[in-house]
Specification:
The chain has one helix and 19 strands. With about 200 residues, it is mainly beta.
């Protein structure tokens, strides 16, 4: 017999633990999990046995995670965003991602080969692109440039505030080169980059 309709589970204290919906033996509709105090913990939506989206909450009722087929957003317990990922349907190995400090300031921008990872690495892979780290005032700390899966350049400031550039071998390029490529806190067009 195939499961059909809804089912429920309870904690020993009588609070609802989980609810599920089935249609001809397949997950279909809303599925929920609850904390022992009755607060909702997780909600998933299914269609023809395929996951569509989900939400998760902290025990205090604050949203923890919003997730669907094209995006993932997580939150700190104080309600500030912690992480965002936007999937690229044209290139499943290139996902835009942003991490945040607990004060709401951006801490990292870049790409990832996995929509579920909060960094630029996944199973030994590294995505091409620019990866920028920021402090809690959203001032740039470093910019790392990856090309063809390898470190190409890294931009950072020395103790005097000069912008330095390292190539993939750790060789420091000239301060002038760094200033020209990295103006006003932004990387310039790659076509303008030199080799010296």
């Amino acid at each position: 017999n195939k499961l059909h309709g809804n089912s429920k589970e309870w904690y020993k204290n009588g609070q609802i633990r989980a609810k599920s919906n089935w249609k001809n033996g397949q997950k279909d509709g809303e599925w929920t999990e609850h904390y022992e105090n009755g607060q909702i913990k997780k909600e998933e939506n299914w269609k023809n046995n395929e996951w569509q989206n989900s939400k998760e909450w902290y025990k205090n009722g604050q949203i923890l995670k919003l997730w669907d087929l094209y995006s993932l957003t997580t939150y700190f317990e104080n309600g500030q965003k912690r992480y965002e990922s936007r999937y690229n349907p044209d290139n499943y190995n290139q996902h835009e991602l942003i991490r945040y400090h607990s004060n709401g300031a951006v801490s990292f921008k870049g790409k990832s080969p996995s929509p579920f990872e909060e960094w630029m690495y996944y199973e030994g892979q590294i995505s091409d692109g620019n990866f920028t780290l920021y402090n809690e005032n959203e001032e740039v700390i470093t910019v790392t440039v990856v090309k063809d899966g390898e470190y190409f350049l890294m931009f950072y400031k020395d103790e005097k505030g000069n912008i330095l550039v390292e190539d993939g071998n750790g060789t420091i390029k000239s301060e002038y080169w760094g200033e020209e490529i990295y103006k006003n806190g932004k990387l310039q067009n790659e076509d303008d980059w030199g080799d010296d």
